[in-house]
Amino acid sequence: MNLAGYRLVTDLPEALRPWRDRPVAWENVSPSTGSYRLNSDGVYLYYPGGGTVGYDHPVGQIQFGLGCIASYRTETDPARRAVFLTRARAQADRLIAQHAEARGGWWFGYGFDFTHSVHSGVSYTAPWYSGMAQGEAISLFVQLAELDGVCPEERAAYMAAADGALASLQVLDDGYPWVCNVDGAGYLWIQEYPGSAPGMGDYTYNGMVFAMFGLYDYACATGDQAAADLYDACATTIARYFPLLRNTRWFSFYCQTHRIPAPTYHQHHVELFTQLHWQTGSPDFADCVDRLVDDYPAPGISGTVRFEAGSHTLYRFDTATTGAWVESKGDAQLESKSVSFSSATQAPASMRRRIQGRGIYYLISAGAYTGWWVGESWTKAYMIGAKLATLYRPDRTLTFPGGNVDVDTYRLAADGTVNSIKTVQFANPSNAPCDRRAIVNGRPMFQITAGGLTGYWVPASTVTIDAAPAV
Fold first, then answer.
1. Alpha-carbon gap, residue 380 to 405, rounded angstroms
2. C-beta separation of 330 from 354 below 8 A
3. From the CB of residue 123, how many other CB atoms can be counted at a distance below 10 Å?
4. In degrees rounded to 5, what are phi and psi of residue 178?
5. By the 8 A CB rule, do 201 and 195 touch?
6. From CA 147, how far away is CA 152, in angstroms rounded?
């Protein structure tokens, strides 16, 4: 089993730790209608079609429980805190009560038959098991055990459940049930959708990373080397197969088996690789994030676009009314026109996104050109300020070129405009730390955190990062 030597950062700030970014809102803590709602015991069940018969859905239960834990940690009202804790306990207790024991591990079965509507070969008769659920269950049990509202007896019970769930990830596909296998090249996989025969599966990326968070939580809580090694093996796999997850200049792929672009999962991949970077401190995963952000940036970005003086080409594309991508429309170009400005001007934009088969464009949202798109160009038309920042932890290392090459660096005002430009030259290559990357005035830049350039942004194209060309 291949190991690259990824080591866990165990002292992450609270906000950067797994599942803290997915709290359950107070208004959603007691769902009573729809396909996912609570039964009389407060257990989150799946009711197909909103019907009357509820089934166990381990990932749904676990993620609801983890979201309640996240809210419990930040809630200040005692009554609400008590409800969040009650909901989280109910999910964990249900998993414990319903678990099956086999091959030395605890297994959490789905209570309904399932056939994937898109991915061929993913078809199950209840009960069936998922590596995503097995790993996430570890997070639920460990995080519950860490809460101040849990008594010692409960804490012991939850850690025993975490031990059982971990054991399920320590057996391979030479028996049933199984959710882990080592591929022909020696890489370990946690299968969200294991196949009907050894080694068969969907090789789904997001499900594996979510399962890894359980290994992270367990290793941090216990110091267990076996869990840390499993995490290392999984991280080694994810880093190795990132080129197959990536779909250059478009939505990343959901799984290795089917390689279908996944519009609804691309931003999950951005978030998950960001957390892998934080959890390992490795620039490998930070670089993955940078590439995914550029391939298809999150479209929920708005701001002010500055048009420099001169001519510009505007476009209308076949999209949703909001400007969102629609598969059947494919962003087909409907019309274009040229405009010219004698001096620099500005316009508001409601969206920044990649147009299929093209570059990054802004959707103008007011004024004479409402509904038209303009392509991003840092020399001609760009959204003012720093957008889509990725936080690096720890800092990464930039290298300025030697040979007294001029490099411009930029300090931003509070409104995002540039209020200072400093041009630097170095006779020999010179290093500087940076704590984040963002799209600044239409191009990728890094923010410097130490030395005479502290607080300045430098264009990615003018430096290298971690001894490699920046993207």
1. 24
2. no
3. 13
4. -145, 150
5. yes
6. 11
Amino acid letter, 30: S
Peptide bond into 297 cis (omega under 30): no
Q: How many other CB atoms sit within 10 Å of the CB of residue 382? A: 25
- CA distance linking residue 281 with residue 16, whole number of Å: 12
C-alpha dihedral, 185 to 191 to 197 to 202, nearest 10°: -90
Q: Identify the CA nearest to 254 among candidates 238, 267, 271, 266.
A: 266
Q: What is the pLDDT of residues 216-274, one digit of tens each?
A: 999 999 999 999 999 999 999 999 999 999 999 999 999 999 999 999 999 999 999 99
Distance between CA atoms of 399 and 383, rounded to whole angstroms? Answer: 27
Cα distance between residue 17 and residue 33, in whole Å: 31
Q: Which two tokens stand for residue 241?
A: 């197969």
Answer whether 290's CB lies under 8 Å from 444's CB: yes
Integer Cα distance of 18 and 423 in angstroms: 40
Report the C-alpha gap between 162 and 137 in whole angstroms.
7
Selection from 109, 106, 36, 40 nearest residue 67 by Cα: 36
Question: Which residue, among 145, 45, 49, has the nearest Cα to 94 in the 3D structure?
Answer: 45
Query: Which residues on neighbouring strands pair with residue 389, listed in sequence order?
Result: none
Angle, vertex CA 343, rays to CA 339 and CA 345, nearest 5: 75
Q: 279-317: per-residue pLDDT in tens?
A: 999 999 999 999 999 999 999 999 999 999 999 999 999
User: Do 68 and 147 form a contact (C-beta atoms < 8 A)?
Assistant: no
- Res. 469: pLDDT tops 70: no
The three-state secondary structure class of 191 is coil
Which residues, 6+ apart, have CB-to-CB distance to 148 below 8 Å? none
pLDDT at 470 over 50: no
